[in-house]
Amino acid sequence: MLDLLGTIQNESIFTQLSQWITSPWVSLALVCILFVGFVYQLYSKSFNWAGILAILALLFIFLGYLAEGTISFITIMIFSIGVILVIIELFVVGAVLGIIGMVLIVFSLITMGDNLPLMLLSVCVALILSIIEWVILVKFFKKKISLFENVVLKDSTNTESGYTSHNDRSYLVGATALTLTDLRPAGLILFENERIDAVSEGSFINKDVKVEIIEVEGTRVVVREIQSN
């Protein structure tokens, strides 16, 4: 008899907990935590507290509605596939699988329970908060999704970062060279045993004349004759 009363009491507590989780305000809060946490995790380079909160919120939502018995088998399948994809995204560099998984989870969230307007409202509010969070992360904190940071060679192909392309000869500007051929206005110059195609600033320059490199634009090298005193 005591065991039966204990079981009834435990079931009552579990039922009350599930009803509390699926109540309008708690559901809204959990969905918002899920979305905001996922977006922050998406822009993080490693798994952190935001991902933990998102997973806990997702777990509470699912278990709450599952305890109510209002989730269909199809919803469970879609939800499970979405969760698997999100978990894979957490351990594999990239964001595509995570985004697809999140879309599936959102769809399953909307179809959970028997209060469609409530879930639609919760998802809409969470989306608005996520967009605001995204703007703050991108505009103010200059955050980038790790997928794009790995696909695009970020900040490494500019001279400010120390990158020099094979054809970049901007370092030649101001250097002195010797004409190997007449420049009419194009010809060859010699700089530190390197033969370089060059053009004169406009005037004709004879062979074996010292010139100053005054401009480099891509592979185009412009020189000016050094006037002897």
From TrEMBL:
<keyword id="KW-1133">Transmembrane helix</keyword>
<keyword id="KW-0645">Protease</keyword>
<feature type="domain" description="NfeD-like C-terminal">
    <location>
        <begin position="172"/>
        <end position="224"/>
    </location>
</feature>
<dbReference type="InterPro" id="IPR012340">
    <property type="entry name" value="NA-bd_OB-fold"/>
</dbReference>
<keyword id="KW-0472">Membrane</keyword>
<dbReference type="InterPro" id="IPR052165">
    <property type="entry name" value="Membrane_assoc_protease"/>
</dbReference>
<keyword id="KW-0378">Hydrolase</keyword>
<feature type="transmembrane region" description="Helical">
    <location>
        <begin position="49"/>
        <end position="67"/>
    </location>
</feature>
<dbReference type="GO" id="GO:0006508">
    <property type="term" value="P:proteolysis"/>
</dbReference>
<keyword id="KW-0812">Transmembrane</keyword>
<dbReference type="InterPro" id="IPR002810">
    <property type="entry name" value="NfeD-like_C"/>
</dbReference>
<dbReference type="Pfam" id="PF01957">
    <property type="entry name" value="NfeD"/>
</dbReference>
<dbReference type="GO" id="GO:0005886">
    <property type="term" value="C:plasma membrane"/>
</dbReference>
<feature type="transmembrane region" description="Helical">
    <location>
        <begin position="79"/>
        <end position="110"/>
    </location>
</feature>
<feature type="transmembrane region" description="Helical">
    <location>
        <begin position="20"/>
        <end position="43"/>
    </location>
</feature>
<dbReference type="GO" id="GO:0008233">
    <property type="term" value="F:peptidase activity"/>
</dbReference>
<dbReference type="Pfam" id="PF24961">
    <property type="entry name" value="NfeD_membrane"/>
</dbReference>
<dbReference type="InterPro" id="IPR056739">
    <property type="entry name" value="NfeD_membrane"/>
</dbReference>
<protein>
    <submittedName>
        <fullName>Serine protease</fullName>
    </submittedName>
</protein>
<feature type="transmembrane region" description="Helical">
    <location>
        <begin position="116"/>
        <end position="138"/>
    </location>
</feature>
<feature type="domain" description="NfeD integral membrane">
    <location>
        <begin position="25"/>
        <end position="139"/>
    </location>
</feature>
